């Protein structure tokens, strides 16, 4: 009885805090971005030891569960004030409805614990994207989010260094060790967190050919991030990063020589380290240089996908709305029973949300890339509009072999808002009145006369004289 009373008091405190945070989130997207990025780093560092509230039934309510539930609630409230949805916003709303439908079916069939646990593969992406898609495009907001992203990449790199110390030198500072089975010893953070660093690299790319103190700092940070991404030895991240940088170089030709030089230097340093330390790591772990050359992973995944598809396709209802959350992904691969998610976000979405869900997801990834491909490349500061084609290309590749990280909904949501702004120009159907008014003017608004010619781009982001193109 005492335990139930204590649990009720904690829930009441969480509810009060949630109401206060929701009021803030209705107006401040940068606060939401800070929460999401902070939770991403926290989850990478603490793994299963993330603070959680345990219900009397044994279900763990994690910190990020609360954050993304708040984003889903705030996003839903903001959607109620949207006058008319664009096609991409409709796709997001449809994904959200399918998520809730699959969760409700799962709770009825398998219980709340199993269904909620499996829904965590989708809740961060859908809730974050839905929330950020309700804000009008703003260069000032995007610049602040870009700064937060780069700021959070620094503790992520510190975490990597601490785990490398524990793996290669035996110096344990109390950071929980990553557990990735037979992966190489150098892979001390999971793939989505390495992809988080890869996207941070792309945020710095437009500053590589510029001059000035800020450009030099961002170029240096980008070089260090690039080195970490390459050393962490995640092949899909490498491929996505190469594609992202290639898109930036294709759209902004002047980046070519310096970008090529930095990528080549990072590759040479990595090859040298892998040759010098081919057997690095403690006994019983896979050598550092072997993991990236194996081909078993693709065959392993394809056989698992085939097994899951065969059992999924027998029910016509699954084709429409998918299986309920909690159904599990248990399959037999090379004679071994595997229960992990299928490592393909498109395929996972097909299993849990049917053809309707996967077509909506494809429209959000490929459709947004097509819609924003001709976005101007100049101006906008960090995470400017011109970077979204590169980031969406990376995301499109990443979803083929992984699920999205906790932060990926930020990119998709902002891209949806940007696409809506390009369609409607001066007639944006976003909430912009009353106490929910955002502080940023829509991107593309005409600069005031006082700012004309004073070194400020149309989005309001200052460019120092030494950094002008």
Summarize this structure briefly.
By secondary structure, this protein is mostly helical. The protein contains 16 helices and four strands.
Features:
61% helix; disordered C terminus; globular; 4 strands; 16 helices; two-stranded antiparallel ribbon; mainly alpha; 3% strand; 469 residues
What does this structure look like?
- There is one protein chain.
- Helix content is 61%, strand content 3%.
- It is an all-alpha fold and 469 residues long.
- The chain has 16 helices and four strands.
- The protein has one domain.
- The strands form two sheets. The protein has a two-stranded antiparallel sheet with strand order 1-2. Strands 3-4 form a two-stranded antiparallel sheet.
- The longest helix is centred in the first third of the chain and has 31 residues, at 139-169.
- Residues 278-296 and 426-469 have low confidence and may be disordered.
- The chain has helices at 2-25, 29-46, 63-79, 87-110, 112-119, 123-132, 139-169, 191-204, 213-231, 235-251, 256-276, 296-312, 316-321, 345-372, 388-401, 408-424, and strands spanning 52-54, 60-62, 331-333, 336-338.
- The protein starts with a helix and ends in a 45-residue tail after the last helix.
């Amino acid at each position: 009885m005492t335990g139930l009373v204590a649990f009720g008091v904690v829930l009441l405190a969480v509810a009060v805090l949630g109401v206060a945070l929701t009021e803030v989130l209705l107006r401040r997207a940068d606060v939401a971005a800070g929460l999401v990025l902070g939770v991403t780093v926290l989850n990478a560092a603490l793994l299963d030891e993330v603070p959680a509230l345990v219900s009397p039934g044994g279900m763990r309510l994690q910190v990020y569960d609360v954050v993304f539930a708040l984003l889903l609630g705030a996003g839903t409230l903001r959607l109620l004030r949207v006058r008319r949805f664009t096609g991409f916003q409709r796709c997001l709303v449809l994904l959200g409805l399918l998520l809730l439908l699959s969760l409700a079916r799962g709770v009825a069939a398998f219980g709340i614990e199993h269904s909620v646990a499996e829904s965590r593969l989708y809740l961060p992406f859908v809730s974050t994207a839905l929330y950020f898609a309700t804000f009008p495009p703003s260069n000032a907001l995007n610049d602040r989010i870009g700064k937060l992203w780069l700021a959070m990449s620094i503790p992520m790199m510190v975490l990597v260094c601490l785990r490398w110390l524990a793996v290669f030198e035996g110096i344990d500072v109390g950071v929980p060790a990553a557990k990735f089975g037979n992966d190489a010893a150098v892979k001390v953070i999971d793939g989505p967190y390495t992809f988080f660093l890869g996207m941070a690299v792309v945020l710095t790319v437009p500053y590589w050919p510029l001059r000035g103190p800020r450009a030099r700092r961002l170029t240096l940070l980008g070089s260090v991030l690039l080195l970490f991404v390459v050393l962490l030895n995640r092949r899909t991240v490498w491929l996505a990063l190469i594609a992202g940088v290639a898109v930036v170089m294709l759209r902004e030709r002047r980046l070519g020589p310096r970008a090529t030089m930095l990528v080549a230097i990072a590759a040479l340093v990595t090859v040298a380290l892998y040759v010098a330390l081919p057997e690095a790591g403690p006994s019983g772990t896979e050598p550092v240089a072997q993991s990236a050359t194996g081909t078993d992973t693709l065959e392993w995944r394809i056989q698992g996908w085939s097994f899951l598809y065969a059992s999924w396709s027998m029910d016509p209802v699954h084709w429409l709305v998918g299986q309920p959350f909690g159904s599990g992904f248990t399959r037999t691969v090379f004679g071994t029973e595997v229960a992990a998610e299928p490592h393909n976000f498109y395929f996972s979405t097909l299993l849990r949300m049917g053809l309707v869900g996967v077509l909506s997801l494809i429209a959000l990834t490929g459709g947004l890339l097509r819609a924003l491909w001709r976005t101007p490349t100049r101006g906008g500061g960090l995470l400017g509009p011109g970077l979204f084609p590169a980031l969406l290309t990376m995301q499109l590749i990443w979803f083929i072999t992984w699920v999205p990280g906790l932060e990926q909904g930020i990119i998709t949501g902002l891209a949806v808002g940007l696409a809506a702004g390009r369609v409607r120009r001066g007639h944006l159907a976003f909430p912009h009145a009353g106490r929910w008014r955002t502080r940023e003017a829509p991107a593309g608004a005409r600069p005031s006369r006082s700012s004309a010619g004073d070194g400020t781009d149309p989005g309001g982001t200052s460019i120092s004289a030494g950094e002008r193109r």
